[in-house]
Structures are given as structure tokens and as C-alpha cells.
Fold Homeobox domain-containing protein.
Amino acid sequence: MELALSLGDPSKPFSFLDKTAKLSSKDLGFCMGLGNGFKSQENGDDAFEGKNSTDGDEKRVSSDPPLQLDLLPFSPVPRPQSSSQLRLPWLTDNRDAVSMDFGIRKGSRRGKKEVEVEAVETERTSTRASDDDDNGSTRKKLRLSKEQSAFLEESFKEHSTLNPKQKLALAKQLNLRPRQIEVWFQNRRARTKLKQTEVDCEYLKRCCETLAEENKRLQKELQELRALKTSQPFYMQLPATTLTMCPSCERVATASTTNASASTADAKTGGYPFFSSISNT
DNA sequence: TTCGTCGGATGGCTTACCTCA
DNA sequence: GATGAGGTAAGCCATCCGACG
């Protein structure tokens, strides 16, 4: 366990916590870092700068997330009033972009791969606290701020998936870990898909109901026609070609066209069985 | 206080791609 | 050059579970 303390320049706190809320060099601040066996500068920095793939790959000696505490002068970081103040990182040069800082947050349960891959990232996120106080038995859940969520939503509208560059840019801009951005997009995609599935399901259900109703109506019609047939034998004794009417559309076909276009009529009427039964008997 | 929903996080699996023998 | 094995990254999916109304 190591304890580091710095005064005066929070923008460059410690090697293992160097991804902090962006502060200008003019800002006076007090920064305290608490880590467990954090590594030396040369390792961590290289990892985060993308030396090895996207997310960095350096491993901390311990998986315990570090704690950094920033005590700053009054409102050192401008907070966005709305998402419109933020810019999508891949759309602009980000001159006006602001990064947000968050309160102390407890670490969360992570798999070993996550721990390894994200160790450096974790270290670099600002104002992060470990859950040392309760031995990791519980986890505090991060709740993204409205601004962050709105910004991510906007980003999602632009791209439902992110390339590593976009992910990193977003993470930097929102002061989150790239993994968090990734997870947010994954969950967003999943939930969008789920919503769409529900909509589709609802639509199919309505279709099914409509078809069932139509089927019922046609069955009834067929029954009526059969009844008509038995009650009016004379009607049916006429040559089939003289009266061929589809009861549903109430069109009467002529003698010549009926037989010639029987197959096409079937196709046009959807092959309703009663049509042919009338004309053929 | 309890309960249902939301949403951030995790682990496992699959797929695509790359490297190397 | 073609091919299979092994490694890695990324995405999807099911699930967990804390936060919150």
C-alpha cells in the first residue's frame, strides 16, 4: 500500500492516477492518491496511450481500485448545463468540449480479465474510490449523470457502435473509463433490440388478430353460402358459367372469363375455396 | 418497508482477424 | 502458398444486483 500526496497541481497527480478531471494549470488544487502497489510511470503511461491495442493492457500488482481525492477551489471544472454544450468527439475538434467530474464512487465487481485489462484505466479515472471500507462485499453502483446519459444518447444516435478511437474520445470527454462507454453502448444496443422485438411482437399479434377475424368472417360467409346452396337448389342448377360471383367482393364473372381465368381468379382471391366450389357445382 | 423497474456491470460464448509453425 | 492451431479483441447474450420511484 502506498500513499501519495501532492499539492498545487492536480492536473498531474500521480502516475497511476493520471487520467483525472482536466484542470488547467492555473487551478490550485489538493490531490491525494491512495493505491496498492501501483506501478511506475513508464509502464502505466505507455499502456494507456494505446501501445497495446485499445484499452491498455498493463496490470497493477493489486486489483484494488485506487482512491483519489481531489480537493479543489470553488468550481474548478465548468459543468455543462446541457448536453448541447458537449460535442461529439469525432464530429468536432473539441475545443469547446468539457469533461465532467464525479463524486467518489466505489469499485465494482469485476472479472479477472477486466481487472487486468482495465487496471490502468481504472487508475486514471478521477475521483474514484475503492470499496476497501466494506471489503468489497457490496458494490455501489454508478449512476450516470443526466448530462452524461444525454451525451451518450446523442452519440448513440450517430453511431450505435463505436470504434476504439471514438470510445476513447467519449471516455475522455465524459471522464469515464472506455470500458464503461463500451458497456453503456452494449446495454443500449441490447435494450434497443429488446424494445424493437417488443414492438415487432405487438405488431405480429395485431396481424394475427386481424387474420383470425378475417378467417372467422370468411368461415361464416362460407357457411351462409352452403346454406344458400341447399335451400335454393334451382339456383345451383343453373350452369356454373352463368352465375359466378364472389360473395366477398361481389363481382360477377362472365361465362367465358370464369373458366379461362379460374387459376388467376384463384390467385386474385387468395384461392378462397368457396369461389371454385360455387362455379363448379 | 416492500416491490417492480431501470440500467450499469459481469461472465461466458461466438466470431473475426492475425501470427506462426 | 495453403492450412490448422493458438491468441486476442470485440460484440452479443443472459444474468446479476444496486438504485430508485
Q: What stands out?
A: Chain A has two domains: 2-192, 208-280. Residues 1-86, 91-137, 253-281 of chain A have pLDDT under 50 and may be disordered. The radius of gyration of chain A is 35 Å. Residues 53-55, 109, 138-141, 143, 161, 164, 182, 186, 189-190, 193 of chain A lie near DNA strand C (CB under 10 Å from a C1').
